[in-house]
Amino acid sequence: MTFLRHERNFSHHTLISYEESLSQLRDYLRKYQLCKSWEEISTDHIRQWMIELQHDHKKSTLHVRLSAVRSFFRYLQIHHHLPHNPCHRLVLPRREKILPKFLSETQIELLIQAPLRLLSSDKLDSLVAHRDAALLELFYSTGTRISELSSLSWSQIHLQERWIKIHGKGSKERVCPIGQRAIDALSQWQYFLSSRGLYPSYQDIPVTYVFFGLYTPHKALSPRHIQQQLKFYLAQAGLPHDLSPHKIRHSYATHLLNHGADLRTVQELLGHENLSTTQIYTHVDAAHMKKIYQQAHPRS
Predict the structure, then answer these.
(1) 3-class secondary-structure state, position 111
(2) For helices 246-258 and 126-142, what crossing angle results, to 10°?
(3) 65, 70, 131, 272: the active-site residue
C-alpha cells in the first residue's frame, strides 16, 4: 500500500479498494486454512475465492478484486522475488456495459437556474443561492469530479484567460476551459463575496476555497454537502431525484460528443487515463442520430 501511495500516486479511493481486496483474500485463505504464506498460494486458490465472491458481488466488483490481487502478486514478484504469479492465467471477468445516465440540455438548464429562481422568490439564502449558481455552472462547464470541485481554490481559477487548473486523481493536473456563463456566474459570486467583506479575506484570514459553507468561509464545501444540494435542486426543478453529481459529468461528456467534439479531446477534458473509459459516452440519443442522418444522407 505504501508503494501504491507514494510510487504509483494512486488515489485515496483506489487505495481503499485495493486494501479491501487484499484483506478479503487474506481472510478467505485464513478461513479455510489453505496456506500460511503468499508463496504457497496457487491459481486454484484464487479461482475458488473468485467463485465464492460471485454469490454476493457484481462482475464489476470481481474485476476490481482480481485486478488488485494480480497487481499485488506482480509487486511481490518484482520486489520480493516471488517465483510465480498465481493470477497469471486467470482472465478478468468481463465488465457489464451500463450506459451512463445523463440529463438532457433542457434538464441541465432547469437545474442550473434553480438556485437563482429560488432566490427571486425568497426561498433561499442569498449567499447559498449565488454560491450554488456558480457551482452548478462551473460543474457543467468543466465536467469536474465532485471531489475536484469541492477542493477548488481561487488560485486555480483564471477568469481572464478562461481556464481553471484541476488537481485530479493520482495527483495529476489538467487544464479545463471555462464557458462564458460559468465565468459570469463566478464573477457574480466573487463580487457578492467582496461586497460583504468575505473576499479575498475574512477576519484577516485569506479565503482560499471557492465554495464553502454558510458559516465556514475558511473550510471547503464537502462532496457530501454538494451532493445534498444537488438532490435539493433536482427536486425543486422536478427532475429525477436519483441522479448523482457524477451524472453532471456524464451530461457534460455526452453533450460535448453530441455537438461534434472528438473522443480524444473529451478524454483530456475529463482527465481519463485510458480512452476506453471515455468510450462509454459514445452513445448518442436517438433524436440526435436522426438529426445527423437527415443532414448527412443524400436521400434523407
Answers:
(1) helix
(2) 50
(3) 272
Q: Which pTM was predicted?
A: 0.73
> Which residue, among 15, 271, 279, has the nearest Cα to 145 in the 3D structure?
271
Reply yes or no on whether 131 is catalytic. Answer: no
Q: Which of 233, 211, 232, 236 is nearest to 221 (CA)?
A: 211
Backbone angles phi, psi at 206, to 5 degrees: -60, 135
pLDDT value for 242: 80
Q: Is 288 designated active site?
A: no
**Domain spans, the chain:** 2-80, 105-291
The CATH topology of domain 105-291 is hpI Integrase; Chain A (1.10.443)
Instruction: Over range 192-199, report the average pLDDT.
Output: 93
What gap in Å lies between CA 288 and CA 294, rounded to an integer? 10
- Structural contact between residues 255 and 105, judged by C-beta atoms closer than 8 angstroms: yes
Contact of 70 with 85, CB cutoff 8 Å: yes
Give yes or no: 224 in active site: no
Q: Is 246 a catalytic residue?
A: yes
Please, what's the largest Cα pairwise distance for the chain?
71
pLDDT at 99: 66
Backbone angles phi, psi at 93, to 5 degrees: -60, 140
169, 174, 225, 231: the active-site residue: 169
**Under DSSP, is residue 201 helix (H, G, I), strand (E, B) or coil?**
strand
Active site residue 249: yes
Compute the distance between CA of residue 206 and CA of residue 208 in angstroms, rounded to an integer: 6
From CA 132, how far away is CA 188, in angstroms rounded?
Answer: 11
Cα distance between residue 229 and residue 287, in whole Å: 31
pLDDT given for residue 13 in this prediction: 84
Question: Over the range 51-65, which residues count as b (16 or more CB within 10 Å of their CB) and which as e?
Answer: eebeeebeeebbbbb
Provide the grid cell at 199: 473576499
Is 283 designated active site?
Answer: no
Residues 6 or more apart whose Cβ sits within 8 Å of residue 257 = 263, 266, 281, 282, 284
